[in-house]
Amino acid sequence: MGSWLNVRETAAHLGVSTATVYNWERAGLLPQRPPEGPVRFPAPAVRMLAADLAEGKIGRLRRRANRRSSERRTFPPKYPGGGSVSPGRLRNILRLLPETERNPLRPLLAVALRLLVERGETRFAGPDAPLEFRAFSRWRRRAVRTLIRDWFRSAGDSPLPAWCSEIFRTAVPFPAAGDVLGSYLQLLRPEGDKSRAGSYFTPPETARLLIGELPESGTVLDPACGSGQFLLAAAERGRKIDELLGIEIDPAAAFAAALNLLLAFPETDRKPHILLRDALRSKSRFRGDHLAANPPWGRADTDSGDETFASRELAARFLAAAPRLTAPGGAAAMLIPESLLAVHRHRKVREFLARRVTIRKIRQLGRCFPGVFSRAVLLCFDNRPPRPGDRAEWITHDGRVIGFSPVELSAESWLPVGEEPETAAILAKMYAPPHLTLAGRAQWALGIVTGDNHRILRPVGTPGCEPVYRGCEVLPGRLAPPRYALRFRPEEFQQSAPEQFYRAPEKLVYRFIGGKLVFACDRSGALTLNSANLLLIPPEVYPMEVAAALFSSMPYNFLFQKKFHTLKVLRRDLERLPLPLPPADEFRCWKTLAGEIAAGNEKTAAELDRRLCGFFRFTPEERFFMEHAVKLQNRR
Asked: Which long-range contacts (CB under 8 A, 24 or more apart) does 54-60 make?
């Protein structure tokens, strides 16, 4: 270990994710990094922290970090080719896998060899022969033989261990087509590893949808090709093997992609164009006429030192690299998190692309990946600057098409605020009356991050503990009875706001996750966890009880949904919401209704919605449109 460690090395030494390393730095558990240059930590400090973790001195941090360290292994829900494999057969394979075997390179090679024997590409010496390259003969194609020879060399063992031989001999039926090896790659890699890498199996129908957005002719490059799902979809649409190009940083996935392509072209005996390298850092001018990609989600690029686009998220870096990886005038289709189109930290990427490319289509796909909360969008663009007269379309979840001009895209957000005529009219009415916003007029605080809920949280009523509220216990206008309690000892928490925020005589508590506005007014000095954040509005600015009722109302949920398109309720978005300044009589009515909502009268919320619709002069059609949109959003 050197004298300084980068973030990835620090995370590997501590056995946590890179995001946890940043959290621990902010909490003071890791010393301040050098003020300039790449992010680095002193190796002695990292060793000391590792020793403390090993001795259990700060085990609560380890347990929190382990959310992304799951050892569970799962098979993709949709097996390629329309076939199915019984859970018992899959469990047999996992039972053969040593607990220490985290790299799927060797077990996946065993699966690949079994597949090749079943497809008649080679013959195996016999049931008692060791699993080594020379045990296979009568290769039908030289390209397949060369690929497997290189895979054996990369695996390092010849012969492979006995447990690999058992996997090879385990009878698992293979479908006639599809990304078979990609399915097994997902099975052999622990869920924690996939989460940290941002690597998720693209459903075949989604891959076909994306490839369908590209022109029929020309080469297709996938710069993060995984096991080749997009390239296989392009092959289905008639492209030849020489027109399919892939780059992949993971050796097991790269070998799988190359073999998948050879199996998709059984009469071809040429090496596929799959490069084992980092597409973001490679100086090669390798590019395609067109680009198809599902870059890693949620993974940070911690080592490049490139601050050009502010965002460290790999998906954002791949999006910014797309023009370089696509031929001038070519087309690109990318599956990306919806957050890249609206979150502030990705603003510079959007600003860069708005000048360089012409957006053709943005299509909402919802939640494509099992267990992944983030929504996906299909972003399609041409690799040329936009021109006046260009038109693009936004396709919503329910199939509605909204047209817009790529030239007029704002770097602030690429989501379709105001492009829908009904939405534009409603938003204009809500901002038309005299109003104020909370920007610079309120105080904000986060809920408690315990670092170890299992150890710290106790049932309500535990002696010496006081109730603590979660986001799910925040209801419109009021707090539901809490389930848990804790001892307020900030020094034991991973993160806590100053106590005066929790103990304020009056404060607003709101749900942080879910993309829905739910605000309650608390006068009990209650504690909250980090799923329920805090807002303090001075009485002379705006009555907090009224603000809670307004923000929780149907019209404001519609406004928030259409303007910000986010699963998190962020301060910077709340600061842009209008707080109306109505006539005194109307305001007194709002106060009365807000008080009844806080007292638990749920029917009063509908009356407040009705009065707000009257105040903003919404038509019956506009009210129906808003109610439908909010109900649809709440079902997702």
From this structure: 58/29, 59/452, 60/450, 60/451, 60/452, 60/455, 60/456, 60/492, 60/494
Close Cβ partners of 130 (under 8 Å, ≥ 6 residues apart): 159, 160, 165
pTM: 0.65
C-beta of residue 478 within 8 angstroms of C-beta of residue 524:
no
**554 exposed, middle or buried (CB, 10 Å; 0-12, 13-18, 19+)?**
buried
Query: How far apart, in whole angstroms, are the C-alpha atoms of residue 209 and residue 202?
Result: 11
Q: What is the bridge-based pairing of β-strands 466-469 and 507-511? A: unpaired
- Count of other CB atoms within 10 angstroms of residue 518: 20
* Closest by CA position to 363, among listed 316, 395, 401: 395
Q: What backbone torsions phi and psi does residue 338 show, to the nearest 5 degrees?
A: -60, -25
What count of other Cβ atoms lies within 10 Å of the Cβ of residue 585? 7
Confidence of residue 636 (pLDDT cuts 50, 70, 90): low
Residue type, 460: V
Give the largest Cα separation in the chain, rounded: 91
What confidence tens digit (pLDDT) does each residue in 150-199 have? 999 999 867 899 999 998 987 566 666 677 788 888 777 766 565 565 56
Reported as type and span, the H/E element at residue 511 is: strand 507-511
CA–CA separation, 473 vs 451, rounded Å? 20
- The one-letter amino acid code at 88 reads G
Residue 7, both tokens: 């973030």
**Euclidean distance between CA atoms 500 and 496, whole angstroms:** 11
Alpha helices in 27-141 (DSSP H): 43-54, 59-65, 87-96, 105-118
Structure tokens at 124: 């195996």
Alpha helices, DSSP H, located in 304-346: 314-325
CA 203, CA 491: separation in Å to the nearest integer?
45
First-last CA distance in the chain: 48
Q: pLDDT of 586-596, one tens digit each?
A: 999 999 999 99
Q: CB atoms < 10 A from the CB of 421, how many?
A: 9
Q: Peptide bond preceding 421: is omega within 30 degrees of 0, i.e. cis?
A: no
Tokens of 44: 């002695």
**What distance in Å separates the CA atoms of residue 399 and residue 402, rounded to the nearest whole number?**
10
**What is the C-alpha separation between 582 and 208, in angstroms, rounded?**
53
Q: How far from 607 is each of 77, 503, 596, CA to CA, in Å?
A: 45, 32, 11
Q: Is 358 helix (H, G, I), strand (E, B) or coil?
A: strand
**Secondary structure of residue 620 in the 3-state scheme:** helix
Give the bridge partners for 363, in sequence order.
378, 395
The pairing of strands 532-536 and 507-511 is: antiparallel
Angle at Cα 334 formed by Cα 388 and Cα 420, nearest 5°? 50
CB-based contacts of 235, cutoff 8 Å, min separation 6: 241, 244, 261, 264, 265
Coil/strand/helix, residue 164:
helix
Give SS3 for 361. Answer: strand
Which tens digits make up the pLDDT trace of 525-554? Answer: 999 999 999 999 999 999 999 999 999 999
- The pLDDT assigned to 60 comes to 46
